[in-house]
Specification:
The complex is a heterodimer of chains A (128) and B (250). By secondary structure, chain A is mostly beta strands. Chain A has 2 helices and 6 strands. Chain A has a 5-stranded mixed barrel. The chains are: A mainly beta (128), B alpha+beta (250).
Chain lengths: 128, 250
Amino acid sequence: MKIAMLAAATFMAAIPALAHHSFAAEFDGKKSVKLEGTITKVEWTNPHIWMYLDVKDEAGNTVKWQCEGGAPNSLTRAGWSKDSLKVGDQVSLDGWLAKDGSKTCNTRSVKLPDGKSVFAGSSNNDYK
Amino acid sequence: MGLCYRSSIFCSTALLALLALPAFAQSDGFKPPEGPVPRTADGKPDLSGVWDHPFVGDMTKSGRNQVGAGELPFTEWGLAEWKNYNAEDGDSTGACLPHGLVRSINAPFPVQLVQNSKYVSFDFETDNWFQVVPIDGRPHRKQIPTWAGDSVGHWEGDTLVIDTVNFNGKTKVDSIGHPQSDQLHVTQRWTRKDLGHMALEITIDDPKTYTKPWKNTRVFTLRPDWEIMEFSCEENNKSLWEGRIKPPKN
């Protein structure tokens, strides 16, 4: 979409450890999760957007997940909107698990079936 | 007029090196407008504008557009505070409590400065927090300690120096949790380099927490294409409501 997305994608790995509040309070940076599912809702709100998805487990049961994304203000500036991801979209989502054991994650990346990234971070993580 | 005016930040070799690096460019490829420093009717540099700035999550580290303080000179108390900090026990900004002064400046959201001859207002998008700072050289107020402290400013040549005291000590100085106490004294030196860039040097002086003052410097970029947006931390803080973030105990 924009050069910003390529640059921002490289920041995605660094974002969780350097959130404006503490990532470590809530998520486990050592526990990655990869989800393939269907978007059922997007909450475009502060302080973070939330994506809800239905994921089929190995037995074929539907498991509901909720995953936190970036701040809507930063995402808006990077060219995204609440309509960038729609109910029914199939996505592949990488993230880190919440420490409380719930089906909650912090999002590292969200991709559509064609490989296109959605919500690829913001322009403001100028941190090495 | 030389650039090295007494303790002006332009004397900082580290900051001069920072400004010369190609990485000085914005991460999204944006180039701010070029031109000289604009001035107000009374001849002062006009610091007004919506400013993008590097996210400073750890004030000891250096990165794009920022020079960190390096190893911090902790007192015994300060070192204990640092080693014992566990965000799982209570994360104040995650609980939508105020960021305080330094973390409002550090946070990854822009700030709008609006200046006249008597005041500079800082409208931080972070939590939509604001501070209106008198810049006529008046003394500090006598009031109860607060999250963002009491700020007063004066000019030293073309640098606006803001002195802040009377903090309640309830925040950290950065996201990673470096401590502060209610003895914190912050000095900010704001110098507009040209139309599109502003340099900021922050000095942290907190004798209870650190044995000597230390500095972090950074460069801001003018974003005439941005406006400050609404930011309600409280509107959907699921992490707090669902118990994954706990508010601090005191």
